[in-house]
Design brief:
4 copies of one chain form a homotetramer. Chain A is α/β, with parallel strands linked by helices and about 325 residues long. The first copy, chain A, has 13 helices and 14 strands. In chain A, strands 12-11-7-10-9-8-14 form a 7-stranded mixed sheet. Chain A has a 6-stranded parallel sheet with strand order 3-2-1-4-5-6, with helices on both faces. In chain A, helix 4 runs parallel beside helix 5 and helix 5 runs antiparallel to helix 13. The mean pLDDT of chain A is about 95.
Chain lengths: ~325, ~325, ~325, ~325
Amino acid sequence: MLRFALFGAGRIGRMHAAELAAHPDAELSYIYDVYDSAARETAYKHGAKVAADVATALNDAAVDAVLIASPTDTHVDLITRAARAGKAILCEKPIDLDIDRVNACREEIASCDVPIQIGFNRRYDPSHRSAREAVGNGEVGRVEEVIITSRDPGLAPIEILRTSGGLFRDMMIHDFDMARFILGEEPVELVAMGSVLVDPRVAELDDVDTAMVIMTTASGALCHINCSRRCVYGYDQRVEVFGDKGMVLSANPTATTLERYSASATQAREPLLNFFIERYAQAYRHQLDDFIAAVEQSRTPAVTFEDGRRALILADAAGVALKTGRSVKLEF
Amino acid sequence: MLRFALFGAGRIGRMHAAELAAHPDAELSYIYDVYDSAARETAYKHGAKVAADVATALNDAAVDAVLIASPTDTHVDLITRAARAGKAILCEKPIDLDIDRVNACREEIASCDVPIQIGFNRRYDPSHRSAREAVGNGEVGRVEEVIITSRDPGLAPIEILRTSGGLFRDMMIHDFDMARFILGEEPVELVAMGSVLVDPRVAELDDVDTAMVIMTTASGALCHINCSRRCVYGYDQRVEVFGDKGMVLSANPTATTLERYSASATQAREPLLNFFIERYAQAYRHQLDDFIAAVEQSRTPAVTFEDGRRALILADAAGVALKTGRSVKLEF
Amino acid sequence: MLRFALFGAGRIGRMHAAELAAHPDAELSYIYDVYDSAARETAYKHGAKVAADVATALNDAAVDAVLIASPTDTHVDLITRAARAGKAILCEKPIDLDIDRVNACREEIASCDVPIQIGFNRRYDPSHRSAREAVGNGEVGRVEEVIITSRDPGLAPIEILRTSGGLFRDMMIHDFDMARFILGEEPVELVAMGSVLVDPRVAELDDVDTAMVIMTTASGALCHINCSRRCVYGYDQRVEVFGDKGMVLSANPTATTLERYSASATQAREPLLNFFIERYAQAYRHQLDDFIAAVEQSRTPAVTFEDGRRALILADAAGVALKTGRSVKLEF
Amino acid sequence: MLRFALFGAGRIGRMHAAELAAHPDAELSYIYDVYDSAARETAYKHGAKVAADVATALNDAAVDAVLIASPTDTHVDLITRAARAGKAILCEKPIDLDIDRVNACREEIASCDVPIQIGFNRRYDPSHRSAREAVGNGEVGRVEEVIITSRDPGLAPIEILRTSGGLFRDMMIHDFDMARFILGEEPVELVAMGSVLVDPRVAELDDVDTAMVIMTTASGALCHINCSRRCVYGYDQRVEVFGDKGMVLSANPTATTLERYSASATQAREPLLNFFIERYAQAYRHQLDDFIAAVEQSRTPAVTFEDGRRALILADAAGVALKTGRSVKLEF
């Protein structure tokens, strides 16, 4: 049984609260949020305590682990304090938008021997994971091409986008992690192109809302990622892996298997699941299961701080490639 | 919050115990099983009490509802006693294998004003339910043909089959209920054919392991059901509804969406889910949700004692049709 | 090179004329139709002669084969005369609507040693044929259940239906032949149900427009056929074969592979092909190929007079089963 | 009726010969090939004359059109001579591997008013064409992302590759044309990455066998192309078009619709069609139809010399981008 303090009671924090409360091997002890009322409401619902401040939770020896679901700019501080307090850490992505702060954090916590997992939940999606297994067990042979399609149902409000870090660090960072997960080796070079097609205000933020990237690895494998901030048919998330023995494709799930036949269409299925909370509900559960199991079995979590750092390095490199029109060599 | 006594701690009883224990609006108070050790183990796992006998649970005023998952031949007795004790009842199908006992039970409990739901869980499968909704909202128009395919992964042990009531009352009874659910009107006549193809010992039981039925309704809709006791590619469960405005097909789900492409096949997916506990996991959860909601809102449960009775009448009629080679007129 | 006389220049006759004219191993020598203008128009288009009467074509020693695509009630006479004239015969289904006339014809031509093929074109559809091959090569194992779905896009004009012989002999006869083709053994018994759902005038013809049948074979295999005279989403033609080693399903083709994703649907494909001339275009070509090859190689055609006769016996039996509500034992 | 001279009787020339011979509005008058025996064999089969040399065919006033299917390095010469002789021209892609020669040819024939079509047959594939129509009729809205997957079943012999012009000019040139066809506007900039993964001898040719490209257009649309010279599961050819109103996907066809269900897989279909002659058989027929119709109706052919030239410019630019690691601005 792992006792958790949850930091953050926003949309994703509330989802984690429910998962922690329902988990047979977890106990939700504390919730902290700068908005006290948000923390209170969620804590009340799940029978947890409201922490008056972060320290209260970290100083309680009965707390084994923290789940960090607060705004991105608080992650580094919370990771550092939790690590020093000896708590196991499950932190939402990204670690931070600034690679220098991430590197500094890495040094700060180097001597703290605590398990840290970064919340790249998609690795736990059963279909994406099966794609990875098809690589691992040799079914696709040597990996030659990976194609990742990633389209959000709709643009976030512009004020959210302003502090998001931009498409590469906020959205495509998930796909960079997926690329590393599937490829099984590090990208060595990257090119990028992008456009503002969804909302012209994105251009004012010096950002793009539609982008494509290609990466290569040392072995010569090629990986393409395409992202759009708006997709009218739902949350489109596909991963294709092509190798010298075959291909596997992690396709989009739907809520039911109902096929419809009418005068206008054949085998039509219902629209895709709307967004990450629905689409990756299973993935979030498996992520929590695996984190808890890793801590209890004293093994390194499956998605490390270093994984979070490297995904950010890829996102930064994509930004440079986009601006310069040149390929960027990657160093981690 | 509904407090349950669970009768039966076998395979399906244990599944219900886990669902009850995890349900936010349910409390698993008692478990009873003739095998005391089975009850004890399950009760211990979920923090419930072991009832020394059925009466203990039924006499406890704190118990609101019973979930009957014991052997079929105990259902009528337990339903009767629970109804007299004023408990809400969720009972696994079938009510009984003998229509006379079911009719007698109906009379016995006629004056007991308790909610009773029979466990035709498939009605709660999201895909089958969407098929029903496509009928209800007029999408398929007037229903003209319903085709239900129902294949179990493998034959149960012969000693289980011996007391099962036969393919029609044990297995196809689910499909008869599905037919009534989808058709939205009663069948009026039925023909049947069947064979022993899976295991010759089934013939010694005067039973069949493969069967097909056709039914008509008063409006002239036709419904076909096919069943097999053995299906090497998994648990095949499909419902097709054809009408004058189109067709919908509730197809088989798989655990992932992974598509495989190799030198020998294209778009291959992984095998079907193995059996009802995996295949209908969502359905069992939604069934429990709906039963609890019905009791709490004092509305009639969605699947009534009468639904259980009528499915048995259809199963019995299929047996007669098979033996006589004649169509059987249905009376309920 | 096989020189053909074509009898009949209606819709299907014109299709055969075009196929014969384009075939590298066939020559379309004569066309005869009671409507001289129809014959003339088609003959002119393909550079064939118009036969003044049937005898002209049959008496021409340069004619090797006849293709009979005239109205059903002329088939027996034309088959008999062509057989006596020593011509190879490809005759559209059915041979006749009256089994007595078919039997008499069989006796009449018994001593004529000419190749005769009946136009059950669906046997030549690449997908249905692959289903048959999956039976033949053992892929599905022992055949246990066959399910044939057969829905025409729309009801023929009532005056056509009046002389059609009824749903079983006009439409389901194709499915009876498909059943025999797939099963690889003869049906021994049959039950049927039917309704008038599409057009009430069908009832005045003492016919049905929607029907379901079940048949068994000596080995115990079960076969279900469902038919409707009207299907708003196109020409729905599926064949499913279930055995102890697996299942194969010949699904509906569409004109393109385009998948559409919109706010309302996922993986929607375009509507099914509209009717038999489009849907079975390949099958008609392969049928002609195979007939020509059979004649040239002096082998028995793949679909014999006896196949045509047995399909009619099944259709007649279905009519009896429908009227009597009793299963009918089959004798050929 | 258009009378053709065919130049080239190799694999693709023989396919064209058969198409021309079977076409109701074409006549195959002459065949010329440097290998006289190849020309003779094909001419004999289709009842055409063997031209002793190119001039014989071009000087015959009865010849209306030429179909150029000879080796790439002969295209420019044959186009020039045929244009001067006033013949309509259907020429296989590419026009030439050297853009300077293409430009020179353009000037040479500028004053010849003859219809010229370049053989980008894929534009005529029914599914790809439907994707284009979904753009044209507004179904996908504004085009934002195009993703083209293009994988050949196997590497050509190394001696063929030596003179092929490299992956971009030999293989991806088809995809560059498809991109222009689908986008409906010109690419303005391009990046590329590539690897030698299939056969190390490809590196000795200073070529790649696996490559990825991204292009942008003036409106900001992004287009990704991925190519591999080897694909064990067949000839994988997909086109995806994503816009602000939806997405369409031209998926791979298979020879039949048979779905297979076994203990190891669900809905498995047979392997993809093997290579372009099978996969694009319909496209080749429609291409010929459209070329003949364009000539007869005196309209400009759908795929012009300029289309051929621009596809080559894109291929050359991809080569530069690959070598320099920089994006290349496109000028046509």
